[in-house]
Specification:
Tetracycline Repressor, domain 2; 2 domains; mainly alpha
């Protein structure tokens, strides 16, 4: 008897190790969000995931390793760094940048993202090496992708960007900088809407003559 194609799509082809890793990450993230990173013990995570402390240490090293893995997984799931689909499609440079800006804002304003950022910042303030690791692994790849795109646009005449690195940093500051800071501090809850983001981007687009 053959298995229907729709059922084949539901088959989990991950290895036992990958399933165990996901179970531990799911349990850790749930507990971190529910009761806080500092107040969650590894023993609670192991109990919730049904694994063992030895496996947790083998896969993630320690509690910081778990937090780093959770942040990396969220980043990958949300495709936070993805520009490829827009940049290689039918959109103009202006439309590409606006679409990316809207997606960045929507992703970063989610309660999950805000809670995760608070945990990452708190742990980063306590441990500089962890802060550098998070910066290298999560922020730098997104920055590099945008730098590469701006460099290409400058080379092909789609923009006049003399310093792609500085322009990429400015872009992220415009789109999520103060909104994220205000949200993390509890000063404001509402993020910029699409029209507000487009308004903020207009001087950026004009200055660099992005077409």
């Amino acid at each position: 008897m053959t298995t229907p194609e729709s059922d084949l799509c539901q088959i989990d082809r991950s290895s036992p190790r990958e399933r165990r890793q996901s179970a531990i990450l799911d349990a850790a993230e749930s507990l971190f969000l529910e009761q806080g990173y500092e107040r969650t013990s590894l023993a609670e995570i192991v109990k919730s995931s049904g694994g063992s402390l030895a496996t947790l240490y083998e896969l993630f090293g320690n509690k910081q390793g778990l937090l780093h893995a959770i942040a990396t997984r969220w980043c990958d799931e949300a495709m936070l760094r993805s520009l490829e689909g827009d940049a290689t499609g039918e959109l103009s440079s202006v439309e590409t940048l606006k679409a990316y800006a809207h997606r960045q804002s929507e992703l970063m304003e989610s309660p999950r993202a805000v809670a995760l950022m608070r945990m990452l910042i708190s742990e980063s303030l306590r441990d500089r090496e962890f802060a550098l690791q998070i910066y290298r692994d999560l922020h730098v790849p997104a920055l590099d992708e945008l730098i590469e795109l701006f460099d290409e646009w400058a080379a092909t005449g789609r923009a006049e960007i003399d310093d792609p690195k500085a322009a990429a940093r400015l872009f992220f500051d415009i789109v999520v900088g103060d909104s994220m800071l205000n949200t993390l501090m509890g000063v404001e809850e509402d993020w910029l809407d699409r029209d507000q983001i487009d308004w903020r981007l207009q001087p950026f687009l004009s200055h660099f003559k992005i077409r």
